[in-house]
Specification:
This is Ankyrin repeat-containing domain. By secondary structure, the protein is mostly helical. The chain has helices at residues 4-9, 12-15, 18-39, 42-48, 54-66, 69-76, 81-93, 106-116, 119-131, 135-143, 151-161, 165-171, 177-191. It is rod-shaped and about 80 Å long.
Amino acid sequence: MLLKCVEVSLPSSMKGLGHVNTAVSAYLMPLSLDAAVRNGCLGVLERKRVPESLAVNEALKLATEQGESEVAELLAVHCSDDAVEEALKYAALKGNWQIMAACTGERDVVELLRRVCDEKDVARSLEDAAQKCKWDVVEVLYQHCDTESRELGATLKCAIEKAKWDLVELFYPRCKEKDLVEALKVVVEQRQ
């Protein structure tokens, strides 16, 4: 994808060399996207995004860090699965999972990415948040987690280890039998 600024600024002698245009555009693209994210220029992003490219993945990361929900929504659709998952994890670890009508900034980004991600990404973020004791995040993610995921069992164990009994009561009905046995072992070890 060629940037208009590159086409205009290159000398006439270079315009015939397509590989030069491509190389200069590729070099400038991450900077252009980062600047567009920082300045909230959605029009630039709509025209200049390159699906599954490193530049778009980095721009999504930056948008998530800055809480730019409109930009993240635009970029998340065109990013790699790994980039979307990383953005989801980042938002989850920041503890911005309160989903309500009046939420703004990073919370909007978190809700958006939760909708864009598949259930496995949500489950991984659930386990990660439980291991880091982000219980408000865990409660929200739990509601959107597949009942067949192994991460529910790991989350139950974390809640038991940290004596979060209200969450244990919430989690255990959806856990598999194997996970409940493992959780009981943790309880027995704690009592000894």
